[in-house]
């Protein structure tokens, strides 16, 4: 039973059955080679990590993937050098039919539907830690996590911005034997390229201008725990071999130092890019990708798991307004939307809805705010402004005051502020930039 009295049915299916398929090379240097899919996604290329490895030099290292979905077989080309063709049509992404003949380089592949299904386990639960989802896509992930989380295996999380990669990383850490040790977040998008080596590995006093004391890096700070490297696809190319060496040797050397320091930290990395595409483009080292890609988890966007919108919206509303039922028309409106910003955008929309439905909060947000020049006094309205725009301005003014007070109470520490507000750290940074609020350095551990 949900907090507003609505009965929520717990998922019951234990497995997802998808149509099976095979790939056969019918033309090219590897003619006769075949693959029978044993999992929903299979990849083709010349790199050894692929499910079907080809020797054709005109095929890219990571050329294509084919995924069995409830809607059919979905093909994706990883920005390959010579493309993927069906007849005279080049295919970047799209659904393909049984019997389709794909030309990749000088190789032709045939896709055949099989009588046997691909079966993938589904968790009976609709959550893992603080990560929620009743859709088949999320329950497939939840089914695997009880085996993955307790290990020290490196995990690579892929998914669009806002899908909850940081929250999932934190949940994996909390379910591991390292949960009592630090969970250290390093966001590659938030650090200047000239400082990222110091942030990762630390530095010694005097190693560069401003290095007034020895400082441990994120790997050392995560001793015994987990380091979460967010948006690793943004890591500068010249830093990638240094990270690879640290992962291989399990040691680091501080900037300006000579001593190698032993590491004891599990690595979870996340990216909003498909690194196979980046490897083909030459912007991400293949050897680092292979080292990170021990267990790869793809978190689908919210538009591909629309059944989760209701579950998430109810959860967020109950958090923000525990004593009020969620209006049915609001929930219906949410379920009709596409949510390009994914879970982060949905949560922000719920926050805004709660704000605008609370007269006390609305009054707070309608007063003059120092950060909002020209804001109207709380007892005045400019009726020349359309209702929707006026409502958004009120929400923005309240949001600016809230974030400013939040950062002040956290003494400028973004990670601490995100924990206080139970808000995704990346979303909070976006709001800080939006309202030009001054914030200090982040703490060693974040909320993910």
UniProtKB/TrEMBL annotation:
PROSITE patterns named in the record: FHA_DOMAIN, SIGMA54_INTERACT_1, SIGMA54_INTERACT_2, SIGMA54_INTERACT_3, SIGMA54_INTERACT_4
Domain Sigma-54 factor interaction positions: 131-355
Residues covered by the FHA domain: 42-91
Gene Ontology BP annotations: regulation of DNA-templated transcription
Top-level taxon of the source organism: Bacteria
CDD domains with a match to the protein in the record: AAA, FHA
InterPro entries: AAA+_ATPase, AAA_lid_NorR, FHA_dom, Homeodomain-like_sf, P-loop_NTPase, Sigma_54_int, Sigma_54_int_dom_ATP-bd_1, Sigma_54_int_dom_ATP-bd_2
Entry keyword Transcription regulation: yes
GO molecular function per UniProt: ATP binding; DNA binding
Keywords annotated in UniProt: ATP-binding, DNA-binding, Nucleotide-binding, Transcription, Transcription regulation
UniProt keyword ATP-binding present: yes
Protein name: FHA domain-containing protein
Annotated organism of origin: Polyangium spumosum
């Amino acid at each position: 039973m949900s907090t507003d009295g609505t009965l929520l049915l717990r998922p019951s299916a234990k497995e997802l059955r998808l149509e099976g398929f095979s790939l056969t090379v019918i033309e090219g240097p590897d003619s006769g080679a075949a693959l029978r899919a044993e999992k929903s996604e299979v990849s083709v290329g010349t790199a050894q990590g692929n499910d079907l490895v080809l020797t054709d030099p005109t095929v890219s290292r990571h050329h294509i993937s084919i995924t069995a979905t409830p809607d059919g077989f979905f093909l994706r080309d990883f920005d390959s050098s010579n493309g993927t063709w069906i007849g005279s049509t080049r295919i970047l992404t799209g659904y393909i039919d049984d019997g389709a003949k794909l030309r990749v380089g000088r190789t032709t592949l045939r896709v055949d539907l099989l009588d046997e299904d691909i079966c993938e386990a589904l968790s009976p639960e609709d959550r893992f830690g603080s990560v929620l989802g009743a859709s088949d896509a999320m329950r497939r992930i939840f089914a695997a996590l009880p085996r993955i989380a307790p290990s020290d295996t490196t995990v690579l999380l892929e998914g669009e911005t806002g899908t909850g990669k940081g929250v999932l990383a934190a949940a994996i850490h909390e379910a591991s034997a390292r949960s009592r040790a630090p969970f250290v977040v390093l966001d590659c998008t938030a650090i200047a390229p000239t400082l990222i080596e110091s942030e990762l590995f630390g530095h010694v006093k005097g190693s560069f201008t401003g290095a007034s004391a020895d400082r441990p890096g994120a790997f050392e700070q995560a001793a015994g725990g987990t380091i979460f490297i967010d948006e690793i696809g943004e890591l500068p190319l010249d830093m990638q071999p240094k990270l690879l060496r640290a992962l291989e040797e399990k040691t680091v050397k501080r900037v300006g130092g000579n001593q190698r320091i032993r590491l004891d930290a599990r690595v979870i990395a996340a990216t909003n890019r498909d690194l196979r595409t980046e490897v083909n483009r030459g912007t991400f080292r293949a050897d680092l990708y292979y080292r990170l890609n021990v267990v790869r988890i793809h978190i689908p966007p919210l538009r591909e798991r629309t059944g989760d919108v209701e579950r998430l919206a109810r959860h967020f509303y109950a958090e923000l307004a525990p004593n009020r039922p969620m209006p049915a028309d609001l929930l219906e409106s949410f379920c009709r939307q596409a949510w390009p910003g994914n879970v982060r955008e949905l949560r922000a929309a719920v926050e805004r809805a709660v704000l605008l439905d609370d007269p006390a909060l609305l009054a707070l947000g309608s007063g003059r705010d120092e950060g909002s020049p020209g804001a109207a006094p709380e007892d005045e309205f400019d009726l020349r402004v359309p209702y929707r725009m006026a409502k958004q301005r009120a929400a923005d003014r309240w949001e600016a005051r809230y974030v400013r007070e939040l950062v002040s109470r956290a003494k400028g520490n973004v990670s601490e502020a995100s924990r206080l507000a139970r808000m995704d750290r990346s979303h909070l940074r976006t709001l800080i930039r939006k309202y030009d609020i001054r914030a200090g350095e982040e703490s060693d551990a974040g909320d993910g």
